[in-house]
Amino acid sequence: MTTPRYSRSGRVRPSGGGPETFIWYLMRLTGLALFVLALTHYLILHVLYDPSRQNAEWITTMRWNSLFWRAFDWSLLMMVLVHAFLGVRTVITDYLHGGARTATLMGLYLIAIGLFAIGTLVVMTLPTVVPKG
Amino acid sequence: MLFRYRGSEGMLAWAFHRISGVAIWAFVIVHVVDIYLVGGNPKAYDEILKIYASPVGRLGETVLGAALLYHALNGLRIIVMDFWPVFTRYQRQLWYLNWAVFALVGVPVAIVILKPIFGL
After folding, report:
1. Residues near B59 by Cβ (< 8 Å), separated by ≥ 6?
2. Residue A27 in contact with residue B67, Cβ under 8 Å?
């Protein structure tokens, strides 16, 4: 089969088996994971529980009062950091070239590292509190 | 540009995917920072959460949900066509199928999120 030069879908799979091929598969794998993780997260926190019922105490005593939901939200964060930042990387490399591309990509990766740090910190260190009553 | 370009549905599907993806990425940055405040500054977090529950916040959440749902469904469409190339022949039909599911799931969700604005 010859490699198509254009695709009706997303990006044609880069050939050669190098990092770009790996990223192509990674986008699809993390995308599938996010289909479940992100939509479930949205359903719970925007539909099943109205935001007017939520505050910092609700998160401490209810939402993040189990290892399961902390692990769930941390997995969501990891998948988002891979998928969203590699996605924006594709957008940047489509529109920017040379020094502007390098500088913007550096900024992008710094934001990703920052979010990894503060997101992981809060989900792992927020004290567990037994709900009152 | 979007409607004059001859790419028609396939090109629109791509453009919406890109726009919704960048929008979700931007929200993720805000959201991770605001969640960090639950541990770092709970009072500030409670203030921010009041924005989520306000009419403007609810509209924003609905737009976010729409972006998520579109991106998720069109992402499945992309995966289906990538791994079973025969489906590229039906890319337009798959896109319309996406919109059918989008409406079916999205409208009830939007109603639930928006109805408190009208005191319901």
Report:
1. B114
2. no
pLDDT in tens, B6-30: 668 888 999 999 999 999 999 999 9
pTM: 0.90
Question: Is the pLDDT assigned to residue A15 strictly greater than 60?
Answer: yes
**ipTM of the complex in this document:** 0.90
Nearest to residue A60, comparing CAs of B40, B52, B27, B81? B40
Nearest Cβ partner for A111 among B29, B45, B46? B29
Task: Find the DSSP H helices in B3-54.
Answer: 8-40, 42-53
Token digits of residue A83: 């998928």
Angle at B83 (CA atoms; ends B82, B85), nearest 5 degrees:
70
A 10 A CB-CB count for A23 gives 16
Question: What pLDDT is attached to residue A7?
Answer: 56
CA-based nearest distance A4→chain B, Å: 11
Q: Does B21 touch chain A (CB under 8 A)?
A: yes
Partner-chain residue, chosen from A8, A60, A118, that has the shortest CB–CB distance to B81:
A8
* Residue B57, H or E segment: helix B55-83
Q: How far is CA B110 from the centre of its chain?
A: 12
Nearest-angstrom CA–CA distance, A62 and A133 = 13
Per-residue confidence band for A1, with pLDDT thresholds at 50, 70 and 90: very low
CA distance A26 to A30: 6
